[in-house]
Design goal:
heterodimer; A: mainly alpha; B: 2 domains; about 0% strand
Chain lengths: ~240, ~120
């Protein structure tokens, strides 16, 4: 029997898409487990843990991101159809949306203008460069949409995705405090607000800790905010002349 | 076969979305336009086909996993993040807090007014 040397075997495996695909799934599985052990804390979201695990793995093994992405792109590709699929929860809640059309529209527009305005304002005040600014701009919107927007605007899509994830965890952590401080008790308002400011993370949080009605409104806010931001943000950026 | 039907609808809408966006050079991501197309199609159709629901909700259940490969890409931008570290952190925290507060307050106000009007 001819045994291949271990280092040769590794060279073959490290360049193979199979390894990155497998490692991504394992990291996500482990991260979900860790998060459940920690009582599902929004501060350490499974996605954040997976990303930390994977970056550590890649740095330790010396595999570069381009090689990793050759395998991971199969997962990444599904973001497109997943974005399209957001139309399903929007359709499901169409009657409730119709009934609350004014609060939903006004809440959505003011929320987006506040999110984009405060982000650009604070970042400009602190002297961020143009690339960072355009990457930060769509941070409140769900990742697949934010990446598309960042790309359109001239930001950095992969960094935008990371910032969106951070925003999601921050929003979930801050949400309960803000609601208590402002004495907001209506679950539809809580859900909608979380979905708007913290997209998918906020939606998951609304379902698990507030209830199904809040979750439905969070999903609605996430879809609607993504859609409206995708159309508004290029206009706002053009208007501000950034 | 339902999984295949679901994927045909989702990818079909995405494809149409890309075509519309590129064809008319609209500054919106193709999948977002695909979402609008699917929403209109569902409203016209009046119900969600079973295969589409199965595939779509399956994808949305694992939405968080789909962000991971792109998130790992942050490793390429360590330099940029380090250069603007405090700007990024302060912007994210403050802006998210403000957005939460303003959205919740505005929506509660409008909602109360709408409820009062309906009751009258």
């Amino acid at each position: 029997m001819n045994v291949v040397a271990l280092d040769q075997l590794w060279v073959y495996l490290a360049g193979n898409p199979l390894l990155s695909l497998l490692v991504t799934l394992i990291a996500f599985y482990l991260a979900t487990r860790v998060n459940i052990l920690l009582g599902r804390t929004p501060l350490l979201h499974p996605v954040v843990i997976s990303i930390v695990l994977l970056i550590s793995f890649l740095l330790l093994t010396g595999i570069d991101y381009r090689t990793y992405f050759e395998g991971a792109q199969f997962i990444h590709f599904l973001l497109g159809p997943a974005t399209v699929a957001l139309a399903i929860p929007l359709y499901d809640h169409r009657i409730r949306v119709q009934r609350m059309i004014w609060p939903v529209m006004i809440g959505c527009i003011t929320g987006i203008v506040t999110a984009v305005g405060s982000t650009l304002g604070i970042a400009l005040l602190m002297g961020a460069n143009r690339e960072t600014l355009l990457t930060l701009a769509p941070k409140s919107v769900t990742s697949p949409i934010a990446m598309g927007i960042a790309e359109q605007l001239g930001g950095i899509p992969s960094l935008a995705a990371g910032l969106v994830l951070l925003t999601g965890s921050i929003g979930c952590a801050l949400g309960p405090w803000v609601f208590r401080l402002l004495k907001i008790k209506d679950p539809t308002v809580q859900g909608f607000t979380l979905g708007l400011a913290a997209h998918g993370f906020g939606t998951a949080q609304s379902f698990s800790s507030i209830g199904a009605l809040a979750g439905a409104f969070a999903g609605l806010a996430m879809g609607l905010a993504g859609l409206v931001t995708a159309f508004l943000l290029p206009l706002i950026v053009a208007l501000l002349g950034i | 076969m339902s999984l295949i039907v679901g994927f045909i609808i989702l990818l079909g809408c995405q494809f149409l979305g890309e075509l519309v966006v590129r064809g008319l050079s609209i500054p919106v991501p193709g999948p977002v336009m695909g979402m609008v197309i699917l929403l209109v199609a569902l409203l016209v159709n009046g119900r969600v086909p079973q295969g589409l629901r199965k595939t779509g909700e399956g994808l949305l259940n694992y939405l968080t996993l789909l962000f991971v490969p792109a998130g790992v890409g942050m490793m390429v931008h360590f330099e940029l993040i380090r250069a603007d570290f405090w700007t990024i952190i302060v912007t994210l925290v403050v802006s998210t807090a403000v957005t939460l507060a303003v959205t919740a307050k505005v929506m509660e106000r409008v909602n109360q007014r709408a409820t009062v009007e309906r009751a009258e």
